[in-house]
Amino acid sequence: MDAWYSVLSMVFGYLSALMILAIVLSAMRKTLTDHRTYRRVAREKRQIAYAGELTVRTGGTKKLAAGTVLYIPYEGTLGAAPGCDVVLSVRRLHLRSAFFWVDGNRMHLVPIQRDAIQVDGETLKPGDEAEMLNGAVLTVNGIGMELRIYEDHPGTREKMEDPYVTRARRAQVHKGRGKGIGSIGTAGSKKSRRQKAAENKTQDEA
Q1: Is 130 exposed, middle or buried (0-12, 13-18, 19+ CB in 10 A)?
Q2: Strands 117-119 and 137-140, sheet pairing
Q3: 103: helix, strand or coil
Q4: Residue pLDDT, tens place only, 106-128
Q5: Of 18, 54, 79, 152, which is least packed with CB atoms within 10 Å of its CB?
Q6: Nearest to 136 by CA among 48, 46, 57, 49
Q7: pTM above 0.85, yes or no
């Protein structure tokens, strides 16, 4: 009789161990599935909410180390201020350094301050408009970032109810003139500092 109890006890012990192992494996499988689903949803969410990304390649800092990815909405501002759409923790960078918008496979960038901004090695001045394609390198105060525009980003900024970079504002941007930008990069009603200086010079000469 004692032998039967020993056998039954051993059988129940093995069954309990197998049940516990099955529960652990099921939990691990569910966790792995949930993690994969989270990553897929996060990736799709980024591509729905953003038009592309900038990846730090050169000149990185502690806050912007090489490999850091900055996601780009369809339009907005770039600068050191926490309220900017693309925040760059870079020394000696204006709070709002430039504004941008994305049309199709191109990112348009217009500096509004005299920061050290280059696109593929070409220096931009306030009011200069740069058109950037995939692989373009944007350098801001020594930080080099490679651009990637998502291939199938759904929707366009034209559907936004209150776009930051309006059609009128874009139409007023001319290379090297700074028209429609304003001295602090807000609405296009104010004249740029360069325009004011040119007008004052013309008046003095007259």
Answers
A1: buried
A2: antiparallel
A3: strand
A4: 999 999 888 999 999 999 998 88
A5: 152
A6: 57
A7: no
